C-alpha cells in the first residue's frame, strides 16, 4: 500500500506538471541567470545547488534552469515510456503465448524458437545499436533532424520489441496447463469455436499472471529508458528525461553533488515503489506464493 501511494503521488505530479510549473510558480521553465554565479563558472549560489523557495530542488549548473521543472516534466516521459512499452509488450506476449500454448504443434515450435531467440538477445545492446539506425531513417522535422515525438514512439517500440517474450513464455506455460482442464473440454463438447475458447475461457483465467507480468515490466522498462537516455540514445532534447538529466549531472558531481543526488534518489524511489507494488500484486494474486 505504501508503494501504491508513492506511485500515485508520482503519477499526480506528472499529470499536474504544467500546473506546478506555471500556476504555482514552482519550477520556472525559463533559465534564472540570477541563481548562478558567473565568478564560479556559473555554479548555483549556495551549498545545496541553489535550493530556495523559488527553486525547490535547486538549479542546473551552467544554464540556470530550474531542476524541479526538469524533473516533473522528465517524470512524464519516464512514466509514459514505462507504461506504454509494458502495455505493448504485454499485449504481444499474451497473444503469442495464447497461440503457442493452445494450438501446439508447428505453431508452438515456431513461436517458442522465436521466444528463445528474443530472450537470448542482450536487450540494451541491441536497442543501442538499432536506435541510431532508425534515427537516421526518420529525418522528419524541418531542421533535418529526428522528430522528438516520433523518436519517443520508436523508443517505446524498441523496448517492447525486446521484452514481449518474457510474458509470452509465462502465458504459454499457463495455457498448456489450462487447455487440458474440464471447462475447456466442456466448451469443445458444446461446439465452441477457437476464438471463444481462447478469449472467453482461457484468457479470463490468465489475468492474474498477466497483471503480475505487466506490473514487473514497468519498472524494468523505466530503468531501460533511463539507461538509454544516459548513454545518449534515448529521448533527445528538448524532451526532458531523467536519464539525460543524470548524464548531464555526472559532469558536475564534484562541484554540485545535489544535481546528481536529487534525480538519482527520485529515480530509485520510483523504481523501488514499482517493484514493491509488483511483488505485492504477485503475493496477493498467487495463493501458492503465500503458502510458500
UniProtKB/TrEMBL annotation:
Its main location: membrane. One of its GO terms (biological process) is transmembrane transport. The keyword Transport applies. It is found in: Cell membrane. It is a multi-pass membrane protein. It holds the Pfam family BPD_transp_1. GO terms for cellular component: plasma membrane. Keywords: Cell membrane, Membrane, Transmembrane, Transmembrane helix, Transport. The keyword Lipid metabolism does not apply. Residues 75-278 form the ABC transmembrane type-1 domain. It comes from the Bacteria. The chain crosses the membrane at residues 79-105, 117-138, 150-171, 197-218, 258-278. Belongs to the binding-protein-dependent transport system permease family. This is Peptide ABC transporter permease.
Amino acid at each position: 500500500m505504501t508503494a501504491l501511494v508513492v506511485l500515485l503521488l508520482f503519477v499526480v505530479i506528472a499529470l499536474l506538471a504544467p500546473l506546478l510549473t506555471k500556476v504555482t510558480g514552482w519550477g520556472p521553465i525559463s533559465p534564472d541567470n540570477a541563481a548562478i554565479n558567473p565568478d564560479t563558472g556559473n555554479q548555483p549560489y549556495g551549498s545545496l545547488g541553489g535550493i530556495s523557495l523559488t527553486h525547490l530542488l535547486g538549479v542546473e549548473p551552467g544554464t540556470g534552469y530550474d531542476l524541479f521543472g526538469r524533473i516533473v516534466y522528465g517524470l512524464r516521459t519516464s512514466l509514459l515510456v514505462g507504461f506504454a512499452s509494458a502495455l505493448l509488450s504485454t499485449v504481444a506476449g499474451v497473444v503469442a503465448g495464447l497461440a503457442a500454448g493452445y494450438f501446439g504443434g508447428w505453431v508452438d515450435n515456431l513461436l517458442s524458437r522465436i521466444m528463445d531467440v528474443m530472450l537470448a538477445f542482450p536487450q540494451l545492446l541491441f536497442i543501442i545499436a538499432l536506435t541510431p539506425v532508425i534515427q537516421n531513417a526518420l529525418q522528419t522535422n524541418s531542421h533535418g533532424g529526428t522528430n522528438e515525438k516520433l523518436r519517443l514512439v520508436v523508443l517505446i517500440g524498441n523496448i517492447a520489441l525486446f521484452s514481449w517474450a518474457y510474458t509470452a513464455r509465462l502465458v504459454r506455460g499457463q495455457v498448456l496447463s489450462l487447455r487440458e482442464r474440464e471447462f475447456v473440454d466442456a466448451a469443445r463438447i458444446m461446439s465452441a469455436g477457437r476464438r471463444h475458447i481462447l478469449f472467453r475461457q482461457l484468457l479470463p483465467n490468465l489475468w492474474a499472471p498477466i497483471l503480475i507480468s505487466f506490473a514487473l515490466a514497468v519498472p524494468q522498462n523505466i530503468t531501460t529508458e533511463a539507461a538509454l537516455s544516459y548513454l545518449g540514445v534515448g529521448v533527445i532534447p528538448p524532451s526532458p528525461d531523467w536519464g539525460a538529466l543524470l548524464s548531464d549531472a555526472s559532469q558536475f558531481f564534484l562541484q554540485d553533488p545535489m544535481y546528481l543526488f536529487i534525480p538519482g534518489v527520485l529515480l530509485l524511489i520510483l523504481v523501488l515503489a514499482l517493484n514493491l507494488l509488483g511483488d505485492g500484486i504477485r503475493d496477493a494474486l498467487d495463493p501458492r506464493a503465500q503458502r510458500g
